[in-house]
Design a protein that fits this description.
Number of helices: 6
Shape: globular
Radius of gyration: 16 Å
CATH topology: Aminopeptidase
Order of helices and strands: EHHHEEHEHEHEE
Number of strands: 7
Largest sheet: 7 strands, mixed
Helix content: 25-40%
Length: 204
């Protein structure tokens, strides 16, 4: 594998759409409960999501794709793509905490906002092509988010793991152990989410 991590840009929109079109949810005979998805909702207000849902009709994937293409053109989706050569094989939705609105889906749990520590980079989603799971792609994405956040003057990076009694194959938050192995620690929790934080030692 020739792994490279690239920040999402408008020029990479075709690669982003190709990833979600063809690889993000291709395993388990298409039974991944997170698909179809184009990681639209994290940066959308509740009313915007409801409007998008009202347009689903008999073409859910098409409606999601059209919405994502519009958001990509406007630079509203933030994060990083992982590539094997020229092929996108992974995605991490990451951006400034304040770029994610409070909506009905709580991509950033309330307890994280209540315990904010300053300028924070938030990670709200991972998607890795099934053929590349377990090969270090998510870790490489996470390490790039940390490096760039530090360079950009963020004081912390946070992820929001789901509390699970057993392993869940398609946990888009990223498993708690993924964060812990690169130095994240728990700083808060509510009924079903853990706020995991890595402080970056950036001088204010």
């Amino acid at each position: 594998m020739n792994l490279e991590i690239k920040p999402l840009t408008t020029e990479l929109a075709p690669a982003y759409l190709d990833f979600f079109d063809n690889r993000a949810f291709s395993g388990e005979k298409g039974n991944n409960p997170n698909g179809p998805c184009y990681c639209n909702a994290p940066t959308m207000e509740t009313a915007e999501v409801k409007q998008m849902v009202s347009e689903f009709g008999n073409d859910v994937k098409g409606a999601l794709r059209r919405n994502a293409a519009g958001q990509l053109a406007e630079g509203k989706i933030h994060g990083y793509l992982a590539f094997d050569g020229d092929t996108a094989i992974g995605w991490c939705n990451a951006g400034d905490m304040n770029s994610y609105p409070v909506n009905d889906w709580n991509f950033i749990p309330d307890i994280a906002r209540q315990n904010a520590c300053g300028k924070t980079m938030s990670i709200v989603c991972f998607a890795i092509a099934p053929d590349y799971c377990g090969k270090g792609v998510a870790t490489a994405l996470l390490e790039r988010v940390i490096a760039d956040a530090k360079a950009e003057g963020y004081v912390a990076v946070e992820g929001y793991g789901a509390l699970q009694n057993e392993r869940v194959s398609w946990d888009f938050h990223g498993p708690v152990r993924l964060y812990e192995k690169v130095g994240f620690v728990e700083v808060a929790r509510d009924d079903d989410r853990i706020v995991l934080r890595k402080e970056l030692g950036v001088e204010l």
